[in-house]
Amino acid sequence: MKIIVINGPNLNLLGQRETSIYGTLTYSLLCDKIIEESKNLNLSTEIFQYNSEGDIVSKIHDCIGNFDFIIGNFGAYTHTSIAIRDAILAVNIPFIEVHISNIFKREDFRHNSFFSDIAVGCISGFGVNSYLLALRAAREYFK
Amino acid sequence: MKIIVINGPNLNLLGQRETSIYGTLTYSLLCDKIIEESKNLNLSTEIFQYNSEGDIVSKIHDCIGNFDFIIGNFGAYTHTSIAIRDAILAVNIPFIEVHISNIFKREDFRHNSFFSDIAVGCISGFGVNSYLLALRAAREYFK
Amino acid sequence: MKIIVINGPNLNLLGQRETSIYGTLTYSLLCDKIIEESKNLNLSTEIFQYNSEGDIVSKIHDCIGNFDFIIGNFGAYTHTSIAIRDAILAVNIPFIEVHISNIFKREDFRHNSFFSDIAVGCISGFGVNSYLLALRAAREYFK
Amino acid sequence: MKIIVINGPNLNLLGQRETSIYGTLTYSLLCDKIIEESKNLNLSTEIFQYNSEGDIVSKIHDCIGNFDFIIGNFGAYTHTSIAIRDAILAVNIPFIEVHISNIFKREDFRHNSFFSDIAVGCISGFGVNSYLLALRAAREYFK
Amino acid sequence: MKIIVINGPNLNLLGQRETSIYGTLTYSLLCDKIIEESKNLNLSTEIFQYNSEGDIVSKIHDCIGNFDFIIGNFGAYTHTSIAIRDAILAVNIPFIEVHISNIFKREDFRHNSFFSDIAVGCISGFGVNSYLLALRAAREYFK
Amino acid sequence: MKIIVINGPNLNLLGQRETSIYGTLTYSLLCDKIIEESKNLNLSTEIFQYNSEGDIVSKIHDCIGNFDFIIGNFGAYTHTSIAIRDAILAVNIPFIEVHISNIFKREDFRHNSFFSDIAVGCISGFGVNSYLLALRAAREYFK
Amino acid sequence: MKIIVINGPNLNLLGQRETSIYGTLTYSLLCDKIIEESKNLNLSTEIFQYNSEGDIVSKIHDCIGNFDFIIGNFGAYTHTSIAIRDAILAVNIPFIEVHISNIFKREDFRHNSFFSDIAVGCISGFGVNSYLLALRAAREYFK
Amino acid sequence: MKIIVINGPNLNLLGQRETSIYGTLTYSLLCDKIIEESKNLNLSTEIFQYNSEGDIVSKIHDCIGNFDFIIGNFGAYTHTSIAIRDAILAVNIPFIEVHISNIFKREDFRHNSFFSDIAVGCISGFGVNSYLLALRAAREYFK
Amino acid sequence: MKIIVINGPNLNLLGQRETSIYGTLTYSLLCDKIIEESKNLNLSTEIFQYNSEGDIVSKIHDCIGNFDFIIGNFGAYTHTSIAIRDAILAVNIPFIEVHISNIFKREDFRHNSFFSDIAVGCISGFGVNSYLLALRAAREYFK
Amino acid sequence: MKIIVINGPNLNLLGQRETSIYGTLTYSLLCDKIIEESKNLNLSTEIFQYNSEGDIVSKIHDCIGNFDFIIGNFGAYTHTSIAIRDAILAVNIPFIEVHISNIFKREDFRHNSFFSDIAVGCISGFGVNSYLLALRAAREYFK
Amino acid sequence: MKIIVINGPNLNLLGQRETSIYGTLTYSLLCDKIIEESKNLNLSTEIFQYNSEGDIVSKIHDCIGNFDFIIGNFGAYTHTSIAIRDAILAVNIPFIEVHISNIFKREDFRHNSFFSDIAVGCISGFGVNSYLLALRAAREYFK
Amino acid sequence: MKIIVINGPNLNLLGQRETSIYGTLTYSLLCDKIIEESKNLNLSTEIFQYNSEGDIVSKIHDCIGNFDFIIGNFGAYTHTSIAIRDAILAVNIPFIEVHISNIFKREDFRHNSFFSDIAVGCISGFGVNSYLLALRAAREYFK
Questions:
Q1: Cα angle, residue E8 at apex, residues E6 and E9 outer, rounded to 5°
Q2: Whose CA is closest to D54, among E17, G110, J108, H57?
Q3: Is the pLDDT of residue G19 over 80?
Q4: Does the beta carbon of B108 lie under 8 angstroms from any beta carbon of chain A?
Q5: Residue to test with chain B: of A33, A97, A123, most B Cβ within 10 A
Q6: What is the pLDDT of residues K9-63, one digit of tens each?
Q7: L72 strand-pairing partners
Q8: F44-49 and F2-7: which strand pairing?
Q9: Second label for B110, Cα 20 to 30 Å away, from B67, H50, H127, L39?
């Protein structure tokens, strides 16, 4: 079972950026943890990060035939991108929405998501663990 | 580490009720699974279910000194109960919000929660696994 | 065919309470009239009244296997209780919403109902006759 | 006691139109049932149907001195016609609002009525029985 | 002149709960102060606290013939309970709304009250003194 | 200078209808007064009344080449008819909006007009004098 | 019969200010016309203009016992001043709202008035004639 | 294949009315062009225009068995008529919505249509060509 | 301890103005009662009333160094004046908001206050007693 | 006359993506049909597709001097991109908005377009024919 | 070139008031800096401050013939005063809106300005420099 | 001190695009003016322009360690891009928002900015001078 993790804009700055919200773990350590947990769970996982909405759309298109599950944290695009939503719908691959921070504790414009209603489920607020729980949920999904 | 799971109104009918949304697993089997996973994770977990808002408020009060973590699925009260919200705030015990179904796929009045902004994090849409992932997240929270 | 009539908060004060809106008929006379009309229509009817939202939820659960039809006047909970709505959906028993007064003549917050869209039909504004017409409608429903 | 039933636009197509919503009973059979029940209840009832808002306004004017009670199903004009509302207010004849379908199960723009707050009461969702119950309610009204 | 003070959900935790908002005075000391001031003012006062909406409704019903004035702090139910509002209207006993904290300094959902427009008057923000001023206002009301 | 006065639905019932709002002057006396004042002001005035929106649209079309000024009281259509608005715009004849009652003292849905922004001016609340003042304003308009 | 005309802020600049909206007639000529028409109608009229909201409130207080009718064009305060509204209500003198321009053709924030619902009637859009028609309407009001 | 073109209120004034918006082509020339293009496309087309909402409803009813496709430009009723919407739904004949002008360039109240969501498709802004393109689209629809 | 009471527009008319809402006590008697109660409570109190928003702003500025507590009833400016709000914030003197009538029983535009969230507390609906209770609350505040 | 067709995100997946909405015609066949119809109509047409908003903006800039007409289906960017709107306005080339599906039958957030009010006209709901009709409309535009 | 700087309510307290928002520079030092920079830029500048809306309106009227440019910081009136807006429009003198603090970082009711859309431009958030930059912008405006 | 100026989509067309709004100065001349003024102010400034949101996000990331201040005119992305907002927050470099035109004179959807509340300050409406004033404000910021 092959899983893709797609991270959206500004996540590359993790650990440097607004650490009171996002924590001090760096992006590369986040990736290491995801890969490590994937091995524990016998999942084959690849991770990508893009700042551009169009790049995310195109990457999702490329998932057809290559991945069985999408774990997505689209960052700011969560609240604005119908194009990425349409891409998820178009490729018809099961999808979990994750967030590092609890988006409901933040500005009003972060309370709305274009992805929650098309996701299998949502996990937010657990820092890096949001991803690790999502991996586990993905594995269960296929049982 | 002692964990309480509090379930809100109508969850006792699980498995009999709107099975296209909530699945066919009965409430007692749900409880069994939660207890079993708790043992795997070395957690001591108790589970309660109430149909009355006031009973949930009172039970949360009783958690002071008795439990270290609350996992709550307040069902319909998620969208209407400021009293339960206040109880959570009053006892000041860390809390995870879980939902069996993906509430964002459902009626508009289920999209708003009085709990998301005061929870450590939220997990929804994974059926019984929502609880199991929450147990794991709770355990990580204390590390 | 067995019918349950469930009345919500404050209906026990009927005849004493805001008589310009609700009329002077007392609650016990209301019950008598409902029972009498039930007999005329060859229906077996029981009547309950609760002030607590949770008690109404639990009573609705108890209807499974015991009643064929629910006639509900949930009073103030009409406008606030998703929990009772969920209970009605959960037990999957046909349901008619009744009101003694015409709720559309009153405060704005009484114009919205969480029950109208899941009821077979709605009858409001006819005083005690709202119940009697509902009994008749219930009988027709089964033909 | 003389009763007028006024039906609004498109009701003439009953039985041919969107039968999943309105049922298969034709308009002329609906009229027969209303007349039959009126006789049972010792009421003298006449039935009219118009597609034009202005015709309904004029017919309501003509009720002065000719009818004691109006049962109205103004169809789509329920949600848009202040002119018909004004006519009802102007003639000052008691009025019941009926609907064949449960309008609260349908599009949002059908949830608002310009008539509910000026009606004696409202009955909706019982198919042809909505009219028959209204006849009975009208008879009770005069007692 | 007999006065009842009815406190809503979570007020029993006073002094333990969110002390930056509600202060450190415990609930039992609050009760002592109210009783003491009542004696000073020659009022006979009893105090009750409930977490359940239905219990508050029922207690208000019991006031008929037993109390001359209601001082109510319905806590979170202030913002959600039409049932308690209806109970107040039903028993037709004069009523003052009090709050310990200034609800207008807090979350938006606490700015709306279902009681302000049916109260004689409102007093909020003065801690325990909100109750003591209300006792005085009640005494003046009868002069 | 030729003036047309167009009255909308229900105005024919003037004097019989809701006399606390519209007064006791009958429609035919209203017409007499308008004609009399027109003579005083050396204006040639004709008056029409329709219950149907379409008839008003058509009559406005007929004004081209026949009338120099329109005084309109479109009654309930004031708040709903874009079709009549379009007719006024189409014939490009100066227009005054009049109302017998002060529409701002009434229901919210009467506060909005589809005509105010395309009228030369508006006169409301003066009973029959609203028309007489409009005649005078029309005469001044041409000077 | 004594009439006061109260003009609000910026009306003193009439004839110099935004002449495409307000016309080229100067404020002093406006006053002359009002006085002249008052004589024609056997009315005793005085005119005042203030830029300050508080001055208008105080002047309205002074009307008690000195004037029988208020004609007010409160300019920008039409849309913002509850204080002037309260003054009008407090002195309980009949009042007509006038506007030189048609406020409904202008910015959205000019469409709402705090005075329309407490006025005898409203006249807007006729330039200086708005005042002259109001004088006539005031005279009729007392007949 | 038989097509009906139904035009709503004020379209009869085409060429005389607001020519900066609707162009100078007269209504009769519009009809000629539609008939000519229908012949080119081997379609049998009839054209009707009504100012009354009720007449349009009735004409749509008459289409049953007589026409295979409706091309409708309901003018102002586009934005207000649920009755015409219901008629289209009732007769269940495929339908294209056309507009001469681009309604999205105009007043806000013209941006909403009661027909767009029940049409096969929409064509607006191309003047008379909107109709000619609709004829072509209708022909393709049946292939 | 020195206290200033600042009254806003129209309060000078107390006792003459809308007595069904504000009661028949005159403004000068109101002042007498406030001074008398101040003496009872060993407070030094001065009272001012202004119709102009700017005058209130300036008076609040003058409080610096002269008064320890502000009791304000800003009348209509309660709902519109950010300038007075800013003055209160600027001088940083504790402040209680009082109202004679219960503003929540009145028009919608009186339900919002620019002062409630910056006040120590609010007292409304008790007539002259609102001020007397505020004096007592102010005295307690300093203990 | 040179025409550019610009397609937005996810249109490259046509025929694979949500075929119940978009049909089974593949993107390359869509392009073939557009080119073929262009030849029939003596138009020189080029087609581009981009997933990135920025690429569409840049391509529109490149149209200056190279194309006479833009036919745009900006997919999800229709509802979110002010940047593309600005590009269209900046290059000042006539533009038609097309959609394959009828966007008004879909989610609420697809009902708003940032392009409709700056387009010559809009064509939606006819599948591939939307483009073919647009080519024809473009050709007519230049006559 | 003569410039007037008009400051609104509470600005006289600068340096004493909410210094975390407005800084510690006193109002008289602010004035000194403005005059000094004016000299550097060869501008003749006068500065005024008023707490009363009406005084600002009158001062703006006085600018006619006396000043070539208005720099305005209307403080709280920015968000509430249509009267000052009208005065600016009436005198037709170019105008820059300045703010010491960044109003978009503050309460919601400070985000709306009645002046931004009629200003040449807006400068906010730079403390005293907001004024100095405005002087420079004014000088450029006349080149 | 090193400053970066980042311009958003369509600004490259300056001087060619909607010149009534943006003026006739070309983009390269704008850049020359910014560089020239930077030299006058002893600032080291670099200028970039991107049409893609993702490119702007990435460029802002690159500012870490390379620039001390960001002057941003994000064009259309001002109103839609949370991703760029997050990038500004992430790099934690002081930032000024500039606009060539006065965005408050334009369409409603341009009145909202995702940047104003996180900027040091905002300057809009002064054409190229908006940038030059921002340079000066940036220099002052560091003093």
A1: 155
A2: H57
A3: no
A4: no
A5: A123
A6: 999 999 877 777 777 889 999 999 999 999 999 999 999 999 999 999 999 999 9
A7: L6, L97
A8: parallel
A9: B67
Name the DSSP class of J104: G
Question: DSSP strand E in H1-143: where?
Answer: 2-7, 44-49, 69-73, 95-99, 121-124
Q: How many CB atoms lie within 10 A of CB C98?
A: 26
Compute the distance between CA of residue C76 and CA of residue K52 in angstroms, rounded to an integer: 48
pLDDT of residue A36: 97
ipTM over cut 0.90? yes
Q: In what order do the strands lie in the sheet containing J2-7?
A: H44-49, H2-7, H69-73, H95-99, H121-124, J121-124, J95-99, J69-73, J2-7, J44-49
Place of tokens 């002692």: B2
The answer, yes or no, to whether residue G36 has pLDDT greater than 80, is yes
The number of folded domains in chain A is 1
Tens digit of each residue's pLDDT, chain H (143 residues): 999 999 999 999 998 777 777 778 899 999 999 999 999 999 999 999 999 999 999 999 999 999 999 999 999 999 999 999 999 999 999 999 999 988 888 888 888 999 999 999 999 999 999 999 999 999 999 88
Closest chain F residue by Cα to residue D93:
F17
Please tell me what DSSP assigns to residue A127.
T
* Neighbors of chain H by Cβ distance (3+ pairs < 8 Å): D, F, J
Backbone φ and ψ for C135, nearest 5 degrees, come out as -60, -45
Judged by a CB distance cut-off of 8 A, whether residue D102 touches chain C is: yes
L106 at interface of J, judged by CB pairs closer than 8 A: no
pLDDT (tens digit, 9 = 90+) per residue, A75-129? 999 999 999 999 999 999 999 999 998 888 888 888 899 999 999 999 999 999 9
- How far is residue I98's CA from residue I121's CA, in Å, rounded to a whole number? 9
Secondary structure of K66-131 in HEC code, one letter for each residue: CCCEEEEECHHHHHCCHHHHHHHHHHCCCEEEEECCCHHHCCHHHCCCCCHHHCCEEEECCCCHHH
For residues D16 and D10, is the Cβ–Cβ distance under 8 A?
Answer: no
What type of residue is C95?
A: F
Question: What's the mean pLDDT when you consider all of chain G?
Answer: 94
CB G20 within 8 A of CB G62: no
Element (H, E) at K38: helix K27-40
Say what the pLDDT of residue K75 is: 95
| Catalytic positions of J | 22, 99
Distance CA H140, CA C72 (A): 53
In percent, the amount of chain J with pLDDT more than 90 equals 80
Q: What is the length of chain F?
A: 143
Query: Given phi > 0 = left and psi -120 to 50 = alpha, else beta, which region is J92?
Result: left
The residue type of H77 is Y
pTM greater than the 0.90 cutoff? yes
Q: What is the 3-state secondary structure (H, E, C) of chain G?
A: CEEEEEECCCHHHCCCCCHHHHCCCCHHHHHHHHHHHHHHCCCEEEEEECCCHHHHHHHHHHCCCCCCEEEEECHHHHHCCHHHHHHHHHHCCCEEEEECCCHHHCCHHHCCCCCHHHCCEEEECCCCHHHHHHHHHHHHHHC
Cα dist from H88 to D51, F133, H6, whole Å: 13, 45, 12
CB contact under 8 A, H86 and D16: no
Q: What is the pLDDT of residues K85-115, one digit of tens each?
A: 999 999 999 999 999 988 888 888 888 999 9
Optimal mutation site among I52, I57, I62, I109, interface K, most CBs of chain K within 10 A: I57
Q: Give the torsion sign (CA, H90, H91, H97, H100).
A: negative
Residue D18's pLDDT is 73
The two structure tokens encoding residue G59: 């002047």
pLDDT given for residue A104 in this prediction: 86
Does B41 lie at the interface with A, CB-CB under 8 angstroms?
no
Find the domain containing D133 and state its range: 2-141
CATH assignment at residue K56: 3.40.50.9100
